[in-house]
Amino acid sequence: MGEIDGDLLLFHIDSSVLACDGAIRDLHLPEGASIALIVRGPKLLAARGHTILREDDQVYVFSQHEERALVTLIFGQPKEV
Asked: What is the distance between the alpha carbons of residues 48 and 72, in angstroms, rounded to a whole number?
C-alpha cells in the first residue's frame, strides 16, 4: 500500500467541543474528512448521519492534510494514536 494523503486522527469528545451532543449530519464535515469509528465505553459504533456524539466518546476521523485545521475546530485537538 502506498502513502496516503491524509491522517487518521483520534479525538476525545468533551463538553467544550462543537461536536458534543451534535448529530454527525449536522457537523458539516469538510469534503476531505469522514468519521471512521466511534468508541463509546465498551461499544464500537458505526458512524451514521443520525448518530449523536456524546461526551467521552472517542472518535476516529480520517482527514486529508489540508482539511485538518477545520476538523480540529469541530472536534478539538487530536490525541496521539
From this structure: 20
CA nearest neighbour of 14 among 72, 53, 43, 67: 53
Bridge pairing between strands 33-40 and 58-63 = antiparallel
Beta bridge partners of 12: 58
This prediction's pTM: 0.90
Specify the fold of 6-79. Alpha-Beta Plaits (3.30.70)
pLDDT in tens, 5-27: 889 999 999 999 999 999 999 99
The C-alpha cell at 56 is 467521552
Grid coordinates given for 40: 463509546
